[in-house]
Amino acid sequence: MGAIEIKGLKKTYKDVEALRGLDLVVEKGEVYGFCGPNGAGKSTTLKILVGLVHATDGEASIKGIDVINDGVEARKHIGYLPESYGMPGWDTPRKFLTYMGILSGMSKEDAAKAIEEIAAEINLTENLDRRIKTLSKGNKQRVGIAQALIHDPAILLFDEPTTGLDPIGRNEVLDAMKAFADKGKTVLFSTHILSDVEKICDTVGIIHEGVLMEQGGPEELRQKHGAKDLDEVFLKVAGHG
Amino acid sequence: MDSQVNFSAMIWHRTFRIIFSLRGLIAILFSFYFIGAIAWMLPTITEQGGVIAEIWKTFSSDLAFSWLLFDGALSKLVSIFIAPLFVFDAISGDKTGERMPIIMSRPITRTQYVLMKLSSGMLAFTLLFLPIMGIGYFVFSGLVEGGLDVANYFATCILFVALAFFCMAVCLLISALVKKNLVSFLAAFGLMSIAMTANASKNTSDALLASAQLTPHYYATYFASPFPEPHDLEIMPFLGCLVVIILFALPFLYLTILKFKKEDL
Question: Which ipTM score applies to this complex?
Answer without folding.
Answer: 0.89
